[in-house]
Amino acid sequence: MTYVAAEDRYERMPYRRTGRSGLLLPAISLGLWHNFGDTQPLETQRAVLRRAFDLGVTHFDLANNYGPPFGSAETNFGRHMREDFAPYRDELIISTKAGYDMWPGPYGEWGSRKYLLASLDQSLQRMGLDYVDIFYSHRFDPETPLEETMGALDTAVRQGKALYAGVSSYSPGKTASAYAILRELGTPLVIHQPSYSMLNRWIEDELLDVLGELGVGCIVFSPLAQGMLTDKYLEGIPEGSRATRDTSLSPDLITDETREKLRALNEIAAARGQSLAQLALAWTLRDPRVTSTLVGASSVEQLESNLAALDRLDLSEDELAEIDRHATESGINIWAASSEEG
Ligand SMILES: NC(=O)c1ccc[n+]([C@@H]2O[C@H](COP(=O)([O-])OP(=O)(O)OC[C@H]3O[C@@H](n4cnc5c(N)ncnc54)[C@H](OP(=O)(O)O)[C@@H]3O)[C@@H](O)[C@H]2O)c1
Predict the structure, then answer these.
(1) Nearest atom (ligand 1) to Cα of 168
(2) Which of 298, 301, 305, 330 is the pocket-test mutation for ligand 1 (most atoms within 8 Å of CB)?
(3) Are strands 189-193 and 59-61 parallel, antiparallel or unpaired?
(4) DSSP bridge pairs for 286
(5) Residues 6 or more apart from 239 whose CB is under 8 A from it?
(6) Ligand 1 centroid vs 227 CA: distance in angstroms?
(7) What is the pLDDT along the chain (342 residues), one digit of tens a residue?
């Protein structure tokens, strides 16, 4: 059936400014890392994307290697674009990235100009787009001069293949350097995409201050700690969940100690009339320097329930203090290697 977007799609979602740029992003954005590869039924993908847009989610986040297999999330998204969202292209912010392993040989990963620009061309082709809204350097490359990596982002913007430039999982120091290099080139660094959740709070030490001072936006990923900050792992590891799929969420990360924290946080959420996932999302948005929180969803039900976090974003001082007692580092930041460089 031909998709017609809901008329009231802009009535519930708050849009927040990305740093000091002109770009507004929905408070909650949707990522296509998992759940949009060839292993997920196209019908489910389609339903999730349609429902998201109907509820005001104007930002879909991709990367070259999302799948499985690599590239398939972009190819599938390209199909949904063509079949459903083509009339709405100007209402959408679509991002992609290059940095991790994508194709064999020395030009298929990290941060060279060769890799980044070739990868962006491939991404555009897979998605059937003329341009993406945001193009990210997906991780810091210690072997490539930062001037080269940022130069590639600048070129992408000048070629009109990306509207904005971003970095992901860069350390505070390397973020400041990236900002300075891009500024010199005349292309602003508009956004940083770091991991952040109640179990992984590294950005609070320094990165958020740097971003706030520079006026760079921040979209935080894995705010549910890949599903740990929901009620699904409170008692065990349910069949079909991400932790059973032998991908990015090792069941070894869900320790008894972490479960204790999850149960305590779940009680705080329940006292507010929220699910743990809803509390976890609201909590990531409590700092105005966080522009958007970037969730994943494997079903329409998950998406809808996550978006209902917007009904209750306020958090009292007492609640925040109580959350702090349990929301502590839990050894789940599998992206730390990039942000610890430099
Ligand atoms: N820049 C980077 O390096 C980087 C790295 C990682 C992610 N990201 C971006 O961030 C996005 C989100 O990452 P993520 O998928 O790890 O985020 P997440 O929101 O922390 O986890 C999403 C997963 O949690 C489960 N879930 C979500 N809502 C639920 C609910 N209400 N109840 C129960 N389970 C629920 C689902 O997994 P099940 O399959 O178990 O249902 C879902 O796929 C990615 O798609 C990507 O765009 C970027």
Answers:
(1) 1
(2) 298
(3) unpaired
(4) none
(5) none
(6) 6
(7) 899 999 999 999 999 999 999 999 999 999 999 999 999 999 999 999 999 999 999 999 999 999 999 999 999 999 999 999 999 999 999 999 999 999 999 999 999 999 999 999 999 999 999 999 999 999 999 999 999 999 999 999 999 999 999 999 999 999 999 999 999 999 999 999 999 999 999 999 999 999 999 999 999 999 999 999 999 999 989 999 999 988 899 998 999 999 999 999 999 999 999 999 999 999 999 999 999 999 999 999 999 999 999 999 999 999 999 999 999 999 999 999 999 886
Q: Please work out whether the CB of residue 292 comes within 6 Å of at least one atom of ligand 1.
A: no
Predicted structure pTM score: 0.98
Q: How many CB atoms lie within 10 A of CB 273?
A: 9
* All residues at 6 or more sequence positions from 96 whose CB lies less than 8 Å from its CB, including other chains: 62, 63, 64, 74, 120, 123, 127, 132, 134, 135, 136
> Whose alpha carbon is nearest atom 47 of ligand 1?
31
In this structure, are residues 166 and 190 in contact, taking their beta carbons and an 8 Å threshold?
yes
Q: Which two tokens stand for residue 190?
A: 């508009």
d(CA 319, CA 279): 11
Which among 157, 130, 151, 150 is positioned nearest to 23, based on CA atoms? Answer: 157
Q: At what angle do helices 256-271 and 317-326 cross, to 10 degrees?
A: 170
Query: Which of 28, 33, 262, 307 should be mutated for ligand 1, with most atoms under 8 A from CB?
Result: 33
Q: Pick the residue whose CA is nearest to atom 44 on ligand 1.
A: 31
Which of the listed residues 49, 224, 279 should we mutate to test ligand 1's pocket, taking the one with most ligand atoms within 8 A of CB? Answer: 224
